[in-house]
Design a protein that fits this description.
Radius of gyration of chain A: 13 Å
Distance between the termini of chain B: 32 Å
Strand content of chain A: over 45%
Distance between the termini of chain A: 41 Å
Number of strands of chain A: 11
Structural class of chain B: mainly beta
Largest interface: A-B, 24 and 24 residues
Number of helices of chain A: 0
Helix content of chain B: under 10%
Shape of chain A: globular
Order of helices and strands of chain B: EEEEEEEEEEE
Number of strands of chain B: 11
Structural class of chain A: mainly beta
Oligomer: heterodimer
Helix content of chain A: under 10%
Chain lengths: 109, 112
């Protein structure tokens, strides 16, 4: 089945630093998305990014579907960015999201 | 009120007990999902439903069952809980295929 790999698995930053999180997928996927799980467990949808680039404040995401990867950029990181970041993609026409294993980000003041 | 509400938020139960996790939504979405999260494994799909009469197995459905009582309600049951079902369980809804997902706050289940 489809594999969704995320790197790095863990990331520790000081406040103000920039970072790039990567998501590779083994087969063609539709509806690539990025989620943030905060330290209290809540999952929030950050981006719906099947292709191209989107930006939302300090966060931006790029998906290159032909090369089967997506990137999430966090600039000027803040302690509130801490948590786990997941990418998820849908198998072609299955209507099911498959999640990666996540990148755990810790931002220290 | 939250768009997707899960109850209970936390539950400790004994091995062999039957337990039900409930999910209700006010989004008006037809599609509902149950996911399980284990440390280092991301979220894995247990069951999903695209309307009241539709129930489908996900990646890890063994040991679980579901009931879609109404468009707004989707319950997950563990018929005979075992310790390796200890996990964080999420309910989610979506309005379009693979798009517009909203997650509940999760139910932390511990089986002792």
């Amino acid at each position: 089945g489809i594999q969704v790999e995320q790197s790095p698995p863990d990331l520790i930053l000081q406040e103000g630093a920039n970072s790039t999180l990567r998501c590779n997928f083994s087969d063609s996927v539709n509806n690539l998305q990025w989620f943030h799980q905060n330290p209290w467990g809540q999952l929030i949808n950050l981006f719906y990014i099947p292709s191209g680039t989107k930006q939302n404040g300090r966060l931006s995401a790029t998906t290159v579907a032909t090369e089967r990867y997506s990137l999430l950029y966090i600039s000027s990181s803040q302690t509130t960015d801490s948590g786990v970041y997941f990418c998820a993609g849908e198998y072609y026409n299955t209507d099911k999201l498959i999640f990666g294993t996540g990148t755990r980000l810790q931002v220290f003041p | 009120d939250a768009d997707v509400t899960q109850t209970p938020r936390n539950r400790i139960t004994k091995t062999g007990k039957r337990i039900m996790l409930e999910c209700s939504q006010t989004k008006g979405h037809d599609r509902m999902y149950w996911y399980r999260q284990d440390p280092g494994l991301g979220l894995r799909l247990i069951y999903y439903s695209f309307d009241v009469k539709d129930i489908n197995k996900g990646e890890i459905s063994d040991g679980y069952s579901v009931s879609r009582q109404a468009q707004a309600k989707f319950s997950l049951s563990l018929e005979s809980a075992i310790p390796n079902q200890t996990a964080l369980y999420f309910c989610a809804t979506s309005d379009l295929p693979g798009y517009g997902y909203t997650f509940g706050s999760g139910t932390r289940l511990t089986v002792v």
